[in-house]
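Lay summary

Proteins are chains of building blocks that fold into shapes. Our project writes down both the chain and a compact code for its shape. Here are two examples, one after the other.
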Amino acid sequence: MSRPAILALEDGRTFEGRAFGALAEASGEIVFNTSMTGYQEVVTDPSYRGQIVAMTYPLIGNYGVNEEDVESHRPWGEGFVVRELSRLRSNWRSTKDLGAYLEENGVSGIEGVDTRALTKHIREAGAMRAVLSSRDLDPKRLVAKAKASPGLVGRDLIREVTCDAPWEWEPNGDRAALRVVVVDYGVKYGILRRLRETGCRVIVVPAGATAAEIADRKPDGLLFSNGPGDPAAVPYAVETLRQLLERPPGGKPIPIFGICMGHQMLGQALGGRTFKLKFGHHGANHPVKDTRTGKVAITVQNHGFCVDLESLGQADVEVTHTNLNDGTLEGLRHRRLPLFSVQFHPEASPGPHDARPLFDRFVEMMRSGHA
């Protein structure tokens, strides 16, 4: 027998539904994701730490979950909201259903919600704090709890998702491979897979690693990953980046690639500021224009903050990509240093592969030393 659940927003709006996953209470910023598939990759993306995710596609769970399509070792989202949870799963790779997977990992879900109405509300009112509960079913109390819960602004959530110690992704002993050090702000496995596919040796280090510790790894290139929370609340990471830019090991600049949070960190290290978007960009169908070629790519995105284009103000910083939905900054490069970054996710996982050649560009930059 299903158990009732309520999703309550801080502005007083509530949505009733049925509980699945863990029977518990969770709080976080409510956001919507427009992907039609890839719900397993969404729930295991560390960038969703601190957020409750609502899927706009109406039927979720119909192909179950498996052990291969994960983006980290566990789900990180605080809660999951769907219109309809499929009771049938049909895929030869499926090992269990979505509800059981979320329950095993302590993640609360709610189905039967009018996700169209919820999405329209978030688009108009903006992303806000929320509580999802199958324990306390008093709407007024839940709204009060939502108002009292922490938001994302000013929160360093990277410390909660980064690795504890350095480790290597799929080591194979190839000493001739380009050595890439990935600074883990909440890295998706898809990024590590893609680097390995391009022939790189991939060493992952914690977000708190110092410039000296990173340099000691003697990298051919550095990748700064995606991650959750407010980029302005992580000054230690920005300072590390600034030191690597200003005093590169051995006096020679190291090729750098930033993705999502890594892009925002680089923007700050180059003198820019970040700001909170009204409802963020979450999904696998966001059009981005390459300002140099005029070509448009359909990209995967998952971020609630953005680098303020006007704050950069450096002649050496060139805008490379812009978002065609709202005109926000989606990519930059440095004219003198071997450095570029993008706000979107070129590894996809899930989503279209339009931007995957950016990893090949990074490899070429490591070989040539030029952006």
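And here is the second example, written the same way.
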Amino acid sequence: MNQDNKYKAEHSLPLEDRFWTRRQFLQRAGMGFGALSLATLFGNELFAPAARAMEAEATLLPKTPPFPAKARRVVHIFAQGAPSHVDTWDPKPSLAKYDGQPLPGMDGVAMGSPFKFSPKGRSGIEVSEVFPQLGELADDLCVVRSMYTDIPAHEVATIMMNTGSRLVRPSVGSWVLYGLGSENQNMPGFISLRPGGAPPGGTSNWQSAFLPGIYQGVSINTKVPTLNQLIENIRNPVTPLAEQRRQLDLVHKLNELQSQNLQKDAQLESRLEAFEMAFKMQTEATDAFDLNKEPQSVRDTYGRSAQGNQLLIARRLIERGVRFVQVWAGGWDHHQDLEERLPERARDIDQPLAAFIRDLKQRSLFDETLIVWGGEFGRKPTRDRNGGENPGRDHNSKAFSTVLAGGGVRGGMVYGATDEFGAAAIENKVHVHDLHATILALLGFDHKQLTYRYNGRDFRLTETAGEVMHPVLA
């Protein structure tokens, strides 16, 4: 027997195994039939757990949270770039005392803050001089001084702050929209306002990930000069509204017909929802983003700046029932020239945010709107070696500050503390998961119970951690 024939003989099925009796067939296939029977009991759960999540009915209709809610909406002002806490909200006199000297257990030398802190309001919260107008509102603010996160890298920490994970996960806004729905069916329930290009992490910061696509944030570039560019391609210049409505109705009918025989396609459903939302937005969205409809006095109060326009748009959005508004307020990455650059950046947000808070109060929206201001991590108490004669501060994941206001938060209080130099949180430490758990609690949810089943297990915003900051709740 040659080598090829020998190989075939050794690796071919023997003749006696090529034929099965009926008894042998049932013996060998019995487990397969049993599995098929079991599948009928479990439905799609046994073989395709993801299909269950894809087929879950998603809606933007308003929902009642399981627990009494103190807030109905959230405005997250994200100070991307990581503000220096020891120069804004967390005074450290010891840094001035050791300025220019080595600090125990740290590389480099101490850098005392060039900015003065002074007590503000009846509460006496110490606020940096870079925030003169916000300082006047100290009694409305809750300053959390003991924040910390996992990794001091901008992109990773930015995504972590906005999604609660370093992986591909739904954003905070998507979870809020999933839990509460929207108060306005003609507007997106989650809108992200960004001043120009994509931030670190890009669309990951407002994505819905495995949640249905209707919970994804709509990103708006507020830097463009005209209203038509701001919400580009919303209006159809050729087809009138009535004809658009007929076209959409036809597409929905065709989709229902194919869904009777085939499993619904999650991406197709999301695309149809996007078309439907775009149609509805043609009238209401253009009105919401048109700042020319605001009195000149109001626009002057917010300031004629990019940040002022963003926060004025945010107020107009929440008035119209938008559930979650994300405002990007970056530019805080100060490795050098901190003494000159930090006050400039603080000035950009100080007047608009103070005006926003006062405006919400005047319109009786403050108590139902949770405001969150903060970055992705903090800064070291030592000088950045790359700063030269005009130093700044390097990244620090062990300590930073976040400011909360409105929406059931106790004003005029400081929560948590860092060590004497501001290097690390030591008292009532607050991880990003704890912040997210507190946000959900204010909206009427137990963060451990707000879950979504995907790939055979229940996911939640806070993963397997998170504790509510109960002392900050009013």
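What can we say about the second shape? Residues 31-56 have pLDDT under 50 and may be disordered.
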